[in-house]
Amino acid sequence: MQEVAIVGAGQSVFSRNCGMSIRELCFEAYKEAIEGLNLSHKEIDASIICSAPEYDKQRTPAALISEYLELTPKPTFYIESICSSSSTGLRVAWSLIKSGLHQVIAVIGFQKMSELTSREAAERMGRGDDIMFGSPLGITMPAGYAMYAHAHMAKYGTTEEDLALIRVKNSNYGAMNPKATYRKALSLEEILTSDVICSPLKKYDCCANADGSSCLLIASAEKAKKITSKPVWIMGIGMGTSELNMSARESLTSLNCAREAARQAYQMADLGPEDIDVAEVHDCFTIAELLAYEDLRFAQPGEGVRLIRDKQTYVGGKIPVNTDGGLLSKGHPIGATGGSQIRTIVRQLRGEAGETQVENTQIGLIHNVGGVGTYANVTILGR
Amino acid sequence: MGFEKFGVVSFTSDAKVAPLVDYLEKGKVMMTKCQQCGKAFFPPKADCPRCVSSNVEWLEISSIGTLLAFTVVNYGPSGFENDTPYTLGIAEFEEGVKVLGRVSKAISPEDVKVGMRVKLAPLKLANEQIIYEMQRS
């Protein structure tokens, strides 16, 4: 399906404290995305700005970013689905181009987590769940995923070591990513002996907040061929939603939203899990990557551990996953994360992934989840 | 008003399901059920979106449930600093609902296991707030 393409993809360096304003941070990603393209900013006829507003100081940032990048007076607006905001932005951009309303759209995601004090961040963290029946009991993001981890361990015999192996892999690739916050390979022992945050999840099972931005430039087929010789085509998009309150969910060993998003994306692309050459999955916690293996049908339910134990999700394995180090290494600037994951797959498909390049990649997949498995976007790209 | 009494920390006060708090004060953990289609709701809903009806009744969750998932929280959010460590769990009950709640501090964290049998009971907190917890059955 060659109707809508990603023509450019960029991201800033992700870090614990970027030392610049959000507009300057967004410029970093925009610059990398547009460099080398036969595209003037005047041809960008809409922009979609993505972040999680509870972590922003600036109210209604869309106009501010648009102003700084001189994208005015063209339309700009804001999209939010927490950690999956920028892949939801891509979904909206796809629709707007398919409809014929726009030809070239910039999807810009950002978050400057360092703008909040740790006290302010803890207050917002406390309101991340259902404020009537979840937050009043003290549930947090790590607590939610930790419950999935214990449920998965009890049902399938998954171990804490299996989860740690995921961090070993991702830290190995994070060490090779100059834009990652954490660039150090971790040993199994370091991970297993780190401080327990919410049992069974330890410090190194969890990603860290970060500052960062991402930018995707999306174009119609006709425009894309003029802008670049290496368009990456959007072949399938899917989105699903789970109940916010975990007690209302059907499964505690799988994310319903991700299964639904994957079903839609595979169907639209007319492809299956066996066709995917490389994937980026939302590893906000190690258990989240394991659930993704199964929700994306790279493995049967309960058998995802075999992929990591046998190193099948390393480069050279059956289905390499998170070759950029994942959120666990890069850090997680909420609104920017989806765009960063998509950028990695774009670079893999263009053969620009350097020492983590997967050979002969034709099809790549991105799984980007918001909240504790609340929203999910699955995107399938091809060259 | 009325719902502000629910929770270690409260974030909201007005809710049609505020009677949950009154029932907790009387020693009962309740769910709602649509009187038309019979669907059980926890968290309790004041409305059934399937029947587009607000004709729901309150019923007690009195069965023995099974713990499906749990975690011992060592780092809590704002307002929970003096409460850690605490254990959260999700249990499934015969009334047809799952409940997210605290696991009683009377159960040692090492003894909490997926599959254990639990019952629900109200828990009055030192600050006069009220929640429910899962106790060993």
Structure in a nutshell:
By secondary structure, chain A is α/β, with parallel strands linked by helices.
Features:
heterodimer; A: 383 residues; alpha/beta; Peroxisomal Thiolase, Chain A, domain 1; 2 domains; nine-stranded mixed β-sheet; 35% helix; globular; B: 137 residues; five-stranded mixed barrel; three-stranded antiparallel β-sheet; 8 strands
Number of strands of chain B: 8
Q: Which class do the helix and strand fractions of chain A yield? A: alpha/beta
- Widest sheet of chain B: strand order? 4-5-6-8-7
Arithmetic mean of pLDDT of chain B: 96
The proportion of residues forming helix of chain A, as a percent range, comes to 25-40%
Separate helix tally of chain B: 1
The CATH homologous superfamily of the largest domain in chain A corresponds to Thiolase/Chalcone synthase
Q: What is the SS-derived class of chain B?
A: mainly beta
CATH topology of the largest domain in chain A: Peroxisomal Thiolase, Chain A, domain 1
Please provide the count of β strands of chain A: 11
Strand order of the largest sheet of chain A: 3-2-4-7-1-8-11-10-9
What form of chain A results from the Cα inertia axes?
globular
Radius of gyration of chain A: 19 Å
Architecture overview:
- The complex is a heterodimer of chains A (383) and B (137).
- Chain A is of the alpha/beta class.
- Chain A has helices at 22-34, 61-68, 85-98, 118-125, 141-156, 160-174, 188-192, 221-227, 256-269, 286-295, 304-309, 326-330, 337-349; strands at residues 4-11, 46-50, 76-79, 104-112, 196-198, 201-202, 211-220, 232-241, 278-280, 363-370, 375-382.
- Chain A folds into 2 domains: 4-118 and 210-232, Thiolase/Chalcone synthase (Peroxisomal Thiolase, Chain A, domain 1, 3-Layer(aba) Sandwich); 138-206 and 235-382, Thiolase/Chalcone synthase (Peroxisomal Thiolase, Chain A, domain 1).
- Chain B is mainly β and 137 residues long.
- Chain B has one domain (3-136).
- In chain B, 5% of the residues lie in helices and 37% in strands.
- In chain B, the strands form 2 sheets. Chain B has a 5-stranded mixed barrel.
- In chain B, a hairpin with a 3-residue loop joins β5 (86-93) and β6.
- The longest helix of chain B has 7 residues, at 19-25.
- Chain B is globular, with a radius of gyration of 15 Å.
- Chains A and B meet through α4, α5 and β5 of A and β4, β5 and β6 of B.
